[in-house]
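Sample 3 of the quickstart, ligand magnesium ion:
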Amino acid sequence: MEVTAEDLGKRSFCEAVMRARLPKAVFKELKKTIDYGAPLDAAIADSVAIAMREWAKELGATHYTHWFHPLTNLTAEKHDSFMDPVGDGTFITEFTGKELIKAEPDGSSFPSGGIRETCAARGYTVWDCTSPAFVKEIPDGCKVLCIPTIFISYTGESLDHKTPLLRSMDAVNKQALRILKLFGKTPAKVTASVGPEQEYFLIDKDKFNQRLDLKLTGRTLFGAPAPKGQELDDQYFGVIKDKVSHFMRELNKDLWEYGIPAKTQHNEVAPSQHEIAPIYGTTNVATDQNQLLMETLKKVAERNGFACLLHEKPFAGVNGSGKHNNWSISTSDGENLIDPGKEPEKNLQFQVFLAAILESVDNHAALLRLSASSAGNDHRLGANEAPPAIISAYLGDQLADVVDQIIANGEATSSLKGKVYKSGCSVIPEFKMDATDRNRTSPFAFTGNKFEFRMVGSTQCIAQPMMTLNTIVADTLCNFADVLEKADDFEAAAKKLVADKLREHQRIIFNGNGYSEEWVKEAERRGLPNIKCMVDAVDYLATPENIEMFEKHGVMSKRELVARGVVMYDNYAKQINIEAKTMIEMSTKQIIPAVMKYEGTLAASVKDLKELGISADTQMEILSTIDTKLAELKKATAELEDIVAKAAEKEDDPKAWAKYYHDVVFAFFDTVRKPADELEKIVDAKAWPFPTYEELLFEQ
Ligand code: ADP
Ligand code: MG
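Result:
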């Protein structure tokens, strides 16, 4: 399989393709919308549609679809062929501007959180020209033109992740421009960007297929730890196995063809865990690309004899997977507003943006935590794995020092510089080190010219965290601009504002080890929220203050916010319900019968030994231990069944329902898992009904 220059972006209706294929005037119009957010002139749609259709047909596409992000964390598509009957039994291929711009799928079965009743089915998908259309190609399958769209209800509310994200990008653009204007700068646009690093596991497909839990829930619900885990750190950045390397090559080819700039790949900490990171893009395009990347990961894995696990915690006892969202805002003139430059102590504009971001993170820590919450991510956040559920921001030595000076003196006069490194080896060149180390334990870490929001879950659609970050920062910039626009002496006012805000929000800065017990105590002392689970986090979505903020910036209405809370509760309850039912099924139909069968073999051997006059004490002891644990497992499974059955009583109240699933159902899982895992450790490996951790993690 060769990757040639022509492959790059070949399936993306990207700017270069548009420039080559669209009439000049149309291309110019479209560019104005894409680059500067100018309202799209619907009159150009016909022309774009024809070019898009011809381009897609040349790639073999027979169908097109509006492609959107319902509130499932997945994408949705409903294919329509380009064929239109002429009336004489023949067809022509048609695709008009009207079809490009808008479709009206039924789509009534998507989660709406009560915005739509099941009987009210009408919804609209509307073209987002700022994210390139692409042709999805399934080997030997349909080739489909996918047109990124928003998805809204007949009543006008968003039913997807993209709509609020686009609105939040408008908000941050508007407010950042106000601030920049005060600094005498008037770029056409400010854009929020993100580079999402994506972690995943690759395991053998046949073994995956033998695990009901992996197939139905994405994670293992049973499994004793393997004798080896990740303690030797021998997987992290380790040599990539040939089979995995082959997979990565095919993956990259597919991604590059889609125009997804896949850049970095490596082995991650846990056995069989890997990571891929693309070059960053606008929060909108990067979100679309991340969704397509997750889908492509799964498909290419299949083709290579793997199953790709995107779940946040597929295996107990080894690291789970996250998605580090590297976020920044930059102007259409190419200035990154989060770049401190060489002299951060003198860079007042940077200090204003930094203070605004820190204030946003401190004031809206709960919202940020919520934006990264899911049933799967609960295993990472607030559990014994990183990053902790407490939001704090890491600045590094250089900025922390600048901030300290400002807090103490109202301004900073110096900043730490990177040292020149001398290795002591004559053959190794000297180089200038960074002024600041990195921090791997902070949920919101400054990394040179961007912030890395490291809490996000690996399965998640990144639109929600990015929409949240964009909005809270827009809100603070708005408050800043309100003050500064009125100031007589702008520079003095800006300096004072920065100092005041840094003093007020210094509690959110933490440069130490975010995984330590001491930090949990220290954070509590500082009054930082530590929201342990998703169900508790949902409370913060539609508080009166948050409703006011989201409405003020036109990002989400009260009705939309409340609905999203309901979707989250509902989704949580349903996921835990599936996990509970899968546990019951595996215990009842797989583990218990297998152990009983093994007991029978043991019992027969005891009988045989006794007939020969041998005491069989050891066998009896093993048999008795197994029987005790089997009884424990049987009892726990029956109890879990009762507990799950009672959940129905709460179904009418989404919050109580989700809370019951968290506090009662989920909390009981360990009671079922424990005897099963103990049995796994003493039962003959050949008798165990499904692949073990050893086989899943070390036989890739
Ligand atoms: P790490 O060393 O943190 O694992 P990676 O190289 O894996 O870093 O990923 C870093 C990510 O940050 C990439 O997706 C990269 O494109 C993105 N990135 C780099 N600069 C910026 C920026 N200014 N704004 C947003 N994202 C950025
Ligand atoms: Mg990385």
